[in-house]
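Blackboard transcription, Thursday session:
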Amino acid sequence: MSDSTVDSATGRRGRKSGAPTIYDIAELAGVNPSTVSRALNQPGRVSAATEARIRAAAAELDFHINPLARALPTGRTNTLAVVVADITNPVVFGIIRGAERAASRAGFTLIIAESQESGSLEAATIDRLIPSVDGIVLATTRLPDDEITRIAARKPLVTINRAMDGVISVAPDVRPGITQLVDHLHGLGHRTVAFVSGPGRSWISERRWEALLDAARALGMSVFEIGPNSPTIEGGVRAFERVEASGATSVVAYNDLVALGLIKAAREKGIDVPRDLSVAGFDDIFGAEFISPPLTTVRADLLGAGAVAVQELFRKIGVDAAVADSEELTTELVARESTGPLPTAR
Amino acid sequence: MSDSTVDSATGRRGRKSGAPTIYDIAELAGVNPSTVSRALNQPGRVSAATEARIRAAAAELDFHINPLARALPTGRTNTLAVVVADITNPVVFGIIRGAERAASRAGFTLIIAESQESGSLEAATIDRLIPSVDGIVLATTRLPDDEITRIAARKPLVTINRAMDGVISVAPDVRPGITQLVDHLHGLGHRTVAFVSGPGRSWISERRWEALLDAARALGMSVFEIGPNSPTIEGGVRAFERVEASGATSVVAYNDLVALGLIKAAREKGIDVPRDLSVAGFDDIFGAEFISPPLTTVRADLLGAGAVAVQELFRKIGVDAAVADSEELTTELVARESTGPLPTAR
DNA sequence: CCCCGGTTGGCAACCGATTGACAATCGGGG
DNA sequence: CCCCGATTGTCAATCGGTTGCCAACCGGGG
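(Written on the board underneath:)
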């Protein structure tokens, strides 16, 4: 045994942050560090008197446990990641908030990562994050299926608005909202509706299209798809020409941003919405009610989707925390003024 | 190598996550784990040949370093936290994005925490986060000064839009934008302007008010403050009555949300913006150009503010990464249609 | 042929917790 | 009075890296 001189006398050398540790508590309370650990998180494992002494010492030192140090032996980080393609996309807003609430309610920390619309950057970011989190929510992913499968094999993972075999998925049911929307348009006299779709590979775009198709057919309306398009205002602007050429009297956009673009392009051509053309979107993003005209849209419970995604992750990793109010995720029509009666003459 | 031997190391004994470690690499490369560590992050410390062998082994195992394990001995987590009061506030969007970009450019991970407008929750969240991060950005804090000081003593900390002694602060200079705005209003014929301020304790609200006061006085305009108000649409709605009573022909709101509320309330009373009343805001939030009427506003470089905040943190913790394009944060007027010529009769 | 300085790699002690195994202690029943 | 089981607390190994210190090794000059 080589005598380690520096040790006992000076105390722990070069403490980096000065944050108190369980060793400090142990010393103050006159017990062994492991007893401190047990007192603090295995209720009943140590005597009430000892526990009280330890808690008092912890309070006195303003002790906060170091989650990193805890994570090492336990393998549990109490952290979840939400990956989004674009933080400024209003859609991820509600998802993040719902997830954040749910996570913090269970004492979990949430990491938000932005992939900046790049699949490879997204994969790299996730690789970096994997060891530090207990689970991953893919809110608006750009990753190909096989890559998602690969990641899901390494960490609990939930996707939002994108279904895949063998991967837990959370998605509000689009049919109620779309059925309401189509009824609404039909009631206004429209008999033909165009769907300005999203990116070619978007799972949710296809779901919306299918639901629209079914609902429109059920009412005997003529319906067709225009796309694919970028899911942005610019995408809507660019799609407008084809909408106009199609002669449709009503148009359902992939999302509110695209709807905004359509309205903008229409205005520039002197076509009035909703007098000459009815436009509806999806998501009911912030501001949808303030624009001119206020946008008719199908709202999804994004907050709920974020919460349910976290809930599913908790279920998978064995945390029992009732965190989402409901698991019924649905959609509903929000009728405003961008849709109106059939144009009498065009 | 199409024939990849089905991984001889089938079951690493009871390892919890199965993620490869430097020990696995060491074994595969026939060296000591410490040599692996050195090869991977102390360039030149090991021979080129050994390093190559180690890197090959790492690649073969698809090794990703465990940031938690690294953080323990080094005390460096490569993680930054951004704390916001309300994730749905459009203002924090740009800040988060700017910070995210800057952080990830330097290989740092960003944690977003929401305090849900509660000071005590914010303090608790930060206490929980402190051991896991290298620095903290307070984007829209609800914390009292002394609490901020307390935290700043424990971790590098930067505030945005709030200055305090002894704490690094980042804030775009409001004067250029406000001067432009006042010139703009004056040029339209307005001689009286009301400021609908933000929360009583808001540092940035006071800065805006002071700048507005100076600029208006310089032009001989009459100017007064109405407040405090909640920084929301609802806050604007509630403040409208007092604006109307004041007889001001132009009003500058604490932010775009408040401006929106004012416009909404005005419309409900049959008062047209901008014909009867000119309204301007701050921040140029998403949607400001689509609402009706498109909002005149003072835009701040929020993206830049987020990036500079991270830059300052890096400086403080000794990371040299040029990450922000510029450190000059300014503001500018974006004139749209919610401001117009002086009402001829009122 | 030996000595020397510079490389290169290994050993072992940490970082701050957790936890299985075990020892000490205590009260109570026989 | 002794033994036994239950309770309480201690020891030491461990998670996955990092790093100071030192030994082995290298080639070259004297």
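Lecturer's comment: Residues 31-35, 38, 45-47, 50, 69, 71-75, 131 of chain A lie near DNA strand D (CB under 10 Å from a C1').
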